[in-house]
Structure formats: C-alpha cells, structure tokens
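Thread title: Can someone regenerate the structure for this chain?

I was given the following input by a collaborator and told the matching structure tokens would be attached. They weren't. Posting the sequence so someone can regenerate them.
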Amino acid sequence: QVQVAESGGGSVQAGDSLRLSCTASGGYTMGWFRRAPGKEYEEVGCIRQNDVVYYYKDSMKGRFTISRDRTKNTIYLQMNNLKPEDTAMYYCAARSAEFCADRWHLYQYKGHGTQVTVSS
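Best answer:
Regenerated them for you:
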C-alpha cells in the first residue's frame, strides 16, 4: 500500500502564491487534482516516472508548476498568481502505470487533500 499525503494548503489573497507538497514512496506517476464544492474532480496536471510534466488546463498553464524531488519522495505543485476560482480541495494521487491519466478514478493511491482558499 502506497501512502500519499498532501500538505501546504492555506488561505491566501488573490495574486499570492502557494506551494503544495505530496509525499509518496516509490517512483510513481503522480497526478494533481482539485475539487471545488459541488463540482467534480478537475485534473490539474501530472508528472510521469521520467519526470515529464503535463498540464491539463489552459487556465493553469503559466501559473502552476509541477516538479519532483526524488531524494525526498516528494512532488510539488507551485501555484502563482492565485485567483478566487482556484479555491478548492487539492489532491495528489499515484498510479503505477507509466503514462499519465486525466481521470481521478484511474489513480490507485490517493491522498486526503489539502484546502486552498483564495479570497479577492
């Protein structure tokens, strides 16, 4: 069983930055998702086992950056210029397959989330 745990959420003002962290043992393909109240899971991006990164939404490209530190078994989601519409619970998930997936249910191991709240 792979333990996945997110941290780093908080309440910020529009325009601020946050860096979320996710620890997971092993070199898995890792995805970031978010879920706003009353909405479905939304894919943020993914980092493959070879560290190639994919971002799924144009609204996040240029503002969000995913990276991995293998020495710490940690991946990061750096979020800059945050907007109120970025408010959501942010989740990290791991899958053993080599390729990324843009659906929450395709990840085998999932964290419990960390809340990000952006006020205007």
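DSSP finds no helices and eleven strands in the chain.
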